[in-house]
UniProtKB/TrEMBL annotation:
It comes from Oidiodendron maius (strain Zn). This is PNPLA domain-containing protein. Gene3D superfamilies: Cytosolic phospholipase A2 catalytic domain. SUPFAM superfamilies: FabD/lysophospholipase-like. It comes from the Eukaryota.
Length: 187
């Protein structure tokens, strides 16, 4: 599991690629940090182009980052473009909205995004890691943990988590009753 997590976080400006077995993996996040729609279509493709095969899509966000505003001035403009390019590579909301709109058009599909909106995580930079000190009451990790725990206590989030868990359990139970699944799972 750690290798998968490491491979998905191998942002090229921060980490090297990682070799797992014979394959080398790296983050393909420039413009694809939220792969929800790509994964949806991949599941369909794996099931003979059957859109109904995908009943549930779960997207886990990292908070919303703020929009980039362009500054004026001789050097500010090019820097603004560079910052905008970085923002495009990390802003996942557009993919979420696209998946949400698409999912509503399907009768047999549930799409859920868990994302700690407006809770401050969007302001944390990818390479930020601050320790606790007299000027800072919590480290970056403690802040992320606190915000995440607060988010997971939200009654609407709890309701969504329970609904999704119920769907996953039902799907697993139904799948376990087929000969095809038994052959796949047990060999």
């Amino acid at each position: 599991i750690w290798e998968v997590a490491r491979a998905t976080s191998a942002a090229p400006t921060y980490f090297n690629t990682i070799k797992i077995g014979e394959n080398e993996y790296g983050d393909a996040g420039f413009g694809v940090n939220n792969p929800s729609t790509r994964l949806f279509w991949e599941v369909c493709q794996m099931n003979n182009e059957n859109v109904s095969a995908n009943e549930l899509s779960i997207s886990i966000g990292t908070g919303i980052s703020r929009f980039t505003r362009f500054q004026t001035g001789l050097f500010a403009r090019p820097i603004g473009w560079i910052n905008a390019a970085k923002k495009v590579s990390t802003d996942c909301e557009e993919a979420h909205l696209e998946m949400e709109r698409f999912s509503k058009s399907l009768a047999n599909h549930k799409y859920v995004r868990f994302n700690p909106l407006d809770r401050g995580l969007g302001k944390i930079k990818l390479d930020e890691w601050k320790s606790r000190g007299w000027w800072r009451k919590e480290s970056t990790q403690e802040e992320i943990e606190r915000v995440t725990k607060e988010y997971l206590k939200d009654p609407e989030v709890v309701k969504q988590l329970e609904e999704v868990a119920g769907m996953m359990v039902s799907h697993r139970r139904a799948r376990a009753r087929t000969d095809r699944w038994e052959t796949y799972a047990l060999g």
